[in-house]
Amino acid sequence: MEMDQLVALCKRRGFLFPSSDIYGGFQGFWDYGPLGVELKRNVREAWWRDMVTGHNELDVSAGAPAAYEMTGLDCAIIMHPQVWRCSGHYDLFHDYMVDCRESKKRYRHDQVYGRWLTCKGQRIFVASDVGGNEGLELTQHKAMKFFNLRGKDADELAWDGSLVLLTSVKDFSQVLGPDAKTLGTLTEPREFNLMFKTVVGALGGAEDAAFLRPETAQGIFVNFKNVCDSTRVRVPFGIAQIGKSFRNEITPRNFTFRSREFEQMEIEFFCHPGSSPQWYQYWRQRRYQWYLNLGLASSRLRLRDHEKDELSHYSCGTADIEYAFPFLPAGEFGELEGVAHRGDFDLRSHMEGKLVRQGDQLVVELDGNGKPRHRGSGKDLSYFDEQTKERFIPHVIEPSAGADRATLAFLCEAYQEDEAPDENGKPTKRLFLKLHPRLAPIKAAVFPLVKKDGMPEVAREIYKALKPHMTVFYDEKGAVGRRYRRQDEVGTPFCITVDSHTLQDGTVTIRDRDTLRQWRVSKEECLAELKTRLTA
Ligand code: GAP
User: Fold this and answer.
1) Which atom of ligand 1 lies at the shortest distance from residue 264's CA?
2) Is 466 in a helix, a strand, or coil?
3) Where would I find the beta strands (DSSP E) of 366-491?
4) What is the DSSP string of 473-511?
5) Which one, 146, 242, 264, 454, has least CB within 10 Å?
6) Bridge partners of residue 358, in order along the sequence
7) Distance from C-alpha of 336 to C-alpha of 407, rounded to nearest angstrom
């Protein structure tokens, strides 16, 4: 599947639109349309149900070291600015960017590729902002143009190895930027904090600056004490939150994959330090399995443990759940979710102040006067276990997923083409979304075969009976084959058709989106039949 096909389908059928479309869009922002909003809600609801409300705290879940509780929160997007100072986001949440003086374009330093070559006695680095085969083709094309060569002279280009990242290049004077015609137009890399700044209150002085949260996690950490004091949860337990996060990404791209406004589904799981390695293993597996259960193919999904040098300074282990998105070069995967063992870093930071690593220890970072660089809340965030009479700072396991990335992966996986007979029995190409029934925006469509002979009346009755239980769609316009295809295209798992037999024996046909099989049930049994099949 080409990504363009999915993007076109999403716009045509109302899943996703560029934000502010009539003004030409706004880079890094997307709007979910009438079907997209249902799909994304279903993703969020499946996550909340499977992780929070459906979790049985009385039993030990398969693979878990012990029984545990789950609860939820919904925190403000704008929090006290000190939160971001202590969490490290204020000092450390940045990317490096390079600007091109000629094209005026901006790139993320670690996302520019290129290759060295020598031609006509000159050695240059030809850059591209895409990797893979496309990057190889682009750099070849750019080099030919730069050296004024014709196709037949291509072997005058002596390439020195394949694509490497711009981060490996020290001196930019011989770099031909991705959109430049001359050498040496890229600036030195500069730090760029990804947090969106805003101003709170009418006066708007420097001290009123605040940030839109770049992650939902911090709202959970700063409410740890509130949750412990107001409920009867006992460690081990998890707090879940779904909500918007904002990052001023330098190069938002690949449809919704890297947006500037997106939604996260995060769990902070608090446990005893002694059992945290087992809990980390449990959550790694549990979250990986969640995507498989909802239809992602195991051949396109992987669980990748971070190398030691990739780990954050506080993390004792992180694994990414990654999906082979179709916009990536073959063999490459993109992050869907990170599962991190964060130790006691977060609770301690909000107690004591921003921490830094010193040898094996995390210590409060001090300023020139020996005072904490960023002061913590001073509140005691330790936990007292009434049963063991032990006081400790819980360790945290954090499964952090993106609702938009998950939705995109489910859409990519679902996009299918096959051949099916059209209304004249002629085999024709069929496009359908093989979405898991839990995720499908519409669960069933109801059609009268024709708009006469009392069929619409019966179909409306069935529609009315189903409506309180699930998202259903009624359609009586056009040939029935066309109506089936319109539903296939948006992933509706079942279509119910009222035909001439219905008027005689009270039965209707139900058609399965994936197998195209049709069978008859009595019209009164439609609801029970759909409920069984939707939860199978
Ligand atoms: N609290 C940890 C945290 O925020 P992260 O890896 O930066 O970790 C977690 O983000 C998840 O949020 C990612 O795996 C991804 O699914 C989603 N995400 C992060 N940045 C995103 C962006 N710019 N656009 C869409 N989703 C994003």
Assistant:
1) 12
2) helix
3) 383-385, 390-392, 395-402, 415-421, 427-433, 444-448, 472-474
4) EE--SS-HHHHHHHHHHTT--EEEEE-HHHHHHSEEEEE
5) 454
6) 361
7) 10
The encoded tokens of residue 315 equal 């993390």
> What is the amino acid identity at position 284?
R
Count of Cβ atoms closer than 10 Å to residue 147 Cβ? 15
Residue 535 binned pLDDT confidence (cut-offs 50, 70, 90): confident
* Residue 63 one-letter amino acid: G
Of 446, 345, 433, 436, residue with least CA distance to 397: 345
DSSP state of 374: S
Residue 86 dihedral angles phi and psi, to the nearest 5°: -75, -35
Instruction: Out of 250-254, 257-261, 276-280, pick the least confident.
Output: 250-254
| DSSP codes joined into one string, 323-378 | E--TTSPTT--EEEEEEEEEETHHHHHHHHB-EEEETTEEEE-B-TTSSBSSB---
pTM value is 0.93
Nearest to 287 by CA among 212, 340, 246: 340
Closest of 267, 225, 342 to residue 52, by C-alpha: 267
Q: Which of 266, 281, 219, 267 is nearest to 69 (CA)?
A: 267
CA dihedral of residues 16, 20, 21, 23 (deg, nearest 10): -170
pLDDT digits (tens, 9 = 90+) for 407-452: 999 999 999 999 987 777 788 999 999 999 999 999 999 999 999 9
Nearest-CA residue for atom 6 of ligand 1? 338
Which residue has its alpha carbon closest to ligand 1 atom 4? 215
pLDDT of residue 207: 81
- Cα 338 from chain centre: 10
Taking every pair of Cα atoms in the chain, the longest distance, rounded to a whole number of angstroms, is 90
Asked whether the beta carbons of 252 and 204 are under 8 A apart, the reply is: no
Specify the residue with its C-alpha closest to ligand 1, atom 2: 400
Q: Take atom 10 of ligand 1 and give the residue whose Cα is closest.
A: 400
d(CA 430, CA 485): 7
Which phi and psi (to 5°) does residue 432 adopt?
-145, 155
Distance CA 127, CA 131 (A): 10
Residues with CB under 6 A from ligand 1: 215, 217, 247, 249, 258-259, 262, 264, 266, 335-338, 398, 400-402, 404-405
User: Token pair 């005058």 is at which residue?
Assistant: 156
Count of Cβ atoms closer than 10 Å to residue 136 Cβ: 18
Mean of pLDDT values over 79-84: 97
> pLDDT per residue over 155-192, tens digit each?
999 999 999 999 999 999 999 999 999 999 999 999 99
Q: Which residue matches tokens 């002061």?
A: 375
The two tokens of residue 12 are: 């045509």
